């Protein structure tokens, strides 16, 4: 029996049992809060991945230096104070009395170790570009350090809000591979067990520096099929479920067991072109034709229930640096055919498209709609839908076995730096933007200027210029910026965020 079928059967049985015998609430404080995501975590090491679903699990185990609050304001976490004492030096004062889960005290050495670990080329951390402005971490005493940057770097506090600190003594003791599976941190929950591809079980940290969480046990379950997540939610066996299909919103709201919470999101979905020499996608006309062939508005209306807006760029409208002057490419299949003919592909061509299933809202259905619309203008699309872990592994190793691939991105930094430098700077490029050395140098210069300027208005205008150049190159198939649809049990008091971060320390039973 497949995992999807097993979850469907389990959820149906849950509903039947509850309908027959009812359900006793018992002592809520002792009940686990269960979160259903579409995929499992790929690891529990906070420094060696760049996935939201994995972060949602490990962020319960670890703490950042600075808290990025729901209103985008910075609040103290493991750091109690941070300030620029010169253009290139930040002083960070750390909280005293904090312990890791094994009772060892948290100190500045752990912060220094965490940053240096991410930047170590032998570790191959996908987070390294986020911190490559740092040239040195100087420990002044156990609870004070200076972070030296190569040039002025005004967004460092935002970066530190995404830096979750690992224990130097423990990682050195157990090694990287074991740490990925059996981590300890300073966070509100401790790892109990991880049943790979099934669930992660966490228990409250009774010695947490903020105070012990009200909810004593948390379980993250991987339920790939959205319909099964909905059934489990209605059966009372799941308390929070992500990526609820729009056509099931009314069903959940009428269930009496849960309600849908819709949140404007930084998450967008696009397809990345592989533009290597000899590929049809190396031609800008082909890339534009693909965009013109896809009716994004129709996908939003028919698959997403209107819970998205067409993308105009690789920043959400919640991000600093978003360029309001850019427009979506639009839908014009006849012009798409003309551009393909001009590029020498009047009869189309065959290519492979890769897309995940279960990770993003209606991702499989969106990929199938894109395939159908591209085939309507004469292209032949071989659509592959690998399991999420396999998919992520290809991306992380930059060994993507496709010509075009669907990916979502959510910018937790809420600043253009968090997307543009990682995606488009030739020295740090995480994805595959490459349209020639001259244009790359032009984009590089703009991104370097924006990330080091201390003048917010200069940064904003510089990002606008870079985005306009990138938009003209058409390096992706732009799809949509979505709203996140969460199903939340009526017995839980919890508020979702626009950056998709699931933070459970403040969750409560009603």
Helix content: 25-40%
Q: Give the N-terminus to C-terminus distance in angstroms.
A: 37 Å
Tell me the radius of gyration: 23 Å
- Architecture of the largest domain, CATH level 2? Roll
Bulk shape: globular
Instruction: Give the oligomeric state of the chains in this entry, treating copies of one chain as homo and distinct chains as hetero.
Output: single chain
Number of domains: 3
Structural class: alpha+beta
Q: With helices defined by DSSP (H or I, 4 residues minimum), what is the helix count?
A: 16
CATH homologous superfamily of the largest domain, by name?
Answer: Dipeptide-binding Protein, Domain 3
Largest sheet: 11 strands, mixed
Any overview of this molecule?
With 510 residues, the protein is α+β, with helices and mostly antiparallel strands. It has 3 domains: 3-61 and 174-263 and 484-509, Periplasmic binding protein-like II (D-Maltodextrin-Binding Protein, domain 2); 66-172, Dipeptide-binding Protein, domain 1, CATH 3.90.76.10; 265-483, Dipeptide-binding Protein, Domain 3 (Dipeptide-binding Protein, domain 3, Roll), CATH 3.10.105. The protein has helices at 3-21, 52-58, 108-119, 156-160, 168-174, 176-181, 226-234, 249-253, 284-293, 296-303, 333-342, 363-375, 388-396, 417-424, 437-452, 456-473, and strands spanning 32-37, 66-68, 74-76, 79-86, 89-94, 134-141, 144-149, 189-195, 199-204, 217-222, 240-241, 258-273, 308-310, 350-354, 380-384, 404-409, 476-489, 492-493, 508-509. The strands form 4 sheets. Strands 1, 8, 9, 10, 11, 12, 13, 14, 15, 16 and 17 form an 11-stranded mixed β-sheet that branches. It has a 4-stranded antiparallel β-sheet with strand order 4-5-7-6, with helices on one face. Helix 9 (284-293) packs antiparallel against helix 11 (333-342) and helix 14 (417-424) packs antiparallel against helix 15 (437-452). It is globular.
């Amino acid at each position: 029996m497949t995992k999807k079928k097993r979850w469907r059967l389990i959820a149906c049985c849950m509903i039947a049992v509850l309908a027959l015998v009812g359900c006793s609430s018992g002592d809520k404080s002792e009940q686990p809060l269960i979160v259903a995501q579409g995929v499992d975590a790929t690891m529990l090491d906070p420094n060696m991945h760049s996935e939201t679903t994995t972060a949602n699990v490990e962020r319960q185990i670890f703490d950042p230096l600075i808290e990025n609050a729901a209103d985008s304001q910075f609040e103290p976490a493991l750091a109690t104070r941070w300030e620029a004492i010169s253009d290139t030096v930040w002083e960070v004062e750390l909280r005293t009395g904090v312990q890791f889960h094994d009772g060892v005290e948290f100190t500045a050495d752990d912060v220094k170790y965490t940053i240096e670990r991410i930047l170590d080329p032998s570790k191959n951390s996908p987070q390294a570009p986020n911190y490559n402005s740092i040239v040195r971490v100087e420990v002044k005493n156990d609870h004070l350090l200076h972070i030296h940057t190569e040039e002025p770097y005004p967004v460092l506090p935002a970066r530190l809000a995404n830096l979750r600190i690992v224990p130097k003594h423990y990682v050195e003791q157990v090694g990287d591979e074991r740490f990925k599976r059996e981590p300890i941190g300073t966070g509100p929950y401790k790892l109990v067990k991880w049943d790979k591809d099934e669930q992660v079980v966490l228990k409250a940290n009774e010695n947490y520096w903020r105070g012990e969480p009200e909810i004593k046990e948390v379980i993250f379950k991987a339920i790939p099929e959205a319909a099964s997540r909905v059934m489990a939610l209605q059966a009372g066996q799941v308390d929070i479920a992500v990526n609820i299909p729009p056509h099931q919103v009314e069903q959940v709201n009428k269930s009496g067991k849960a309600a849908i919470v819709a949140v404007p999101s930084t998450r967008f979905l696009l397809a990345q072109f592989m533009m290597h020499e000899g590929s049809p996608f190396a031609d800008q006309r082909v890339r534009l034709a693909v965009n013109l062939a896809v009716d994004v508005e129709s996908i939003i209306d028919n698959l997403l229930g209107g819970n998205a807006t067409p993308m105009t760029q690789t920043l959400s409208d919640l991000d600093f640096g978003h360029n309001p002057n850019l427009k979506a490419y639009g839908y014009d299949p006849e012009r798409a055919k003309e551009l393909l003919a001009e590029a020498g592909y009047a009869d189309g061509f065959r290519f492979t498209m890769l897309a995940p299933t279960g990770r993003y809202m209606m991702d499989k259905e969106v990929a199938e709609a894109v395939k159908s619309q591209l085939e309507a203008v004469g292209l032949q699309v071989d659509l592959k839908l690998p399991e999420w872990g396999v998919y992520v592994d290809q991306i992380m190793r930059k060994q993507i076995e496709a010509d075009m691939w669907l990916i979502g991105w959510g910018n937790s930094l809420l600043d253009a730096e968090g997307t543009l430098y990682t995606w488009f700077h030739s020295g740090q490029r995480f994805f595959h933007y490459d349209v020639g050395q001259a244009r790359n140098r032009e984009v590089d210069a703009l991104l370097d200027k924006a990330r080091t300027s201390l003048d917010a208005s200069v940064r904003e205008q510089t990002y606008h210029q870079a985005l306009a150049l990138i938009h003209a190159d058409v390096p992706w198939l732009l799809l949509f910026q979505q709203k996140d649809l969460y199903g939340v049990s009526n017995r839980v008091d919890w508020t979702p965020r626009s950056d998709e971060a699931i933070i459970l320390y403040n969750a409560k039973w009603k």
